Automatic annotation (TrEMBL):
InterPro entries: Glyco_hydro/deAcase_b/a-brl, NODB_dom, Polysacch_Deacetylase. It is found in: Secreted. SUPFAM superfamilies: Glycoside hydrolase/deacetylase (SSF88713). This is Polysaccharide deacetylase family protein. Residues 25-230 form the NodB homology domain. Pfam families: Polysacc_deac_1. Keywords: Signal. Its main location: secreted. It comes from the Bacteria. It comes from Algoriphagus ratkowskyi.
């Protein structure tokens, strides 16, 4: 009998969190740090394949103003006009686990104001720079009414187990093609694969480089195998985030960085 009620309560919370069934082969593509190649290479390729994506932008220090390395705000505005999601990665790529609430708010508000001045919708999703996070950063994000926050961890996102402020992802680089291909197979049974992608290529941070050929190969594979490729904000169609935040306790014992 106890087992039955335990099962019933798991079943009920599952049903409350999931608004509509999550299809197999659901992939969320996220792009970090606003390198120039996101505008010149990634966005045109995503358009060609008809895929969605989320761009977590910041003004990466110290070379943000070098337009050969990073997108400028007009280009970020163009991405929004093309239908992609612009989301928040802090003003200066700051490790938010080390910030006071006032400093964190300042970091978030800078990007929000920039977006507002360019007619870009207010960012609702966040990615932790350098995967720096703690319980306090989750509380600050909650106060600022963010919806989802992406971490690392190299594992699949289970919306009935992972807190919406601790969404796990795999990061692509030059060396882990086999791991990423294996990851795609895990987008089944209600679980979602989220990728973190830096520059394609990444000139300033070669350790997170993804070559355009490799990136195109991933898109081609996803297309040929009928994957659905969306931005992070589109997850709200499937997940009741407020219920998830109420029912799921953030688990910091799991791996959360890449
Ligand atoms: Zn970053």
């Amino acid at each position: 009998m106890i087992l039955f009620f335990a099962f019933l309560s798991i079943f009920t919370s599952h049903a409350q969190i999931i608004k509509q069934p999550i299809p197999d082969k659901l992939v969320v593509l996220t792009f970090d740090d606003a390198p120039a190649s996101h505008y010149t290479i990634v966005a045109p390729m995503l358009m060609e394949y008809g895929f969605g994506g989320t761009f977590f932008v910041c003004e990466f220090q110290p070379n943000y103003s070098d337009s050969t390395l990073y997108m400028n705000w007009r280009q970020i505005q163009e991405l929004d006009k093309m239908g992609f999601e612009i989301a928040n990665h802090t003003h200066t790529h700051s490790n938010v686990s080390k910030l006071s609430q006032a400093e964190f708010n300042h970091q978030l508000t800078y990007i929000e104001s920039k977006c507002d001045s360019l007619g870009i919708p207010k960012p609702t999703n966040f990615a932790y720079p350098g995967y720096g996070l703690n319980a306090q950063s989750l509380a600050f994000l909650g106060e600022k009414e963010y919806v989802f926050a992406r971490a690392g961890g190299s594992r699949v996102y289970d919306p009935v187990k992972d807190h919406p402020f601790l969404i796990p992802s795999w990061a692509t680089d030059e060396t882990n093609k086999a791991e990423i291909m294996k990851a795609f197979n895990q987008a089944e049974d209600g679980k979602i694969v989220v990728l973190t992608i830096h520059g394609v290529p990444d000139i300033e941070h070669p350790w997170v480089n993804t070559l355009p050929e490799l990136f195109k190969g991933y898109l081609q594979y996803l297309k040929e195998n009928d994957f659905t490729v969306i931005s992070m904000r589109e997850l709200e169609d499937f997940i009741d985030v407020n219920v998830a935040k109420r029912l799921i306790k953030p688990d910091f014992s799991k791996k959360l960085s890449n």
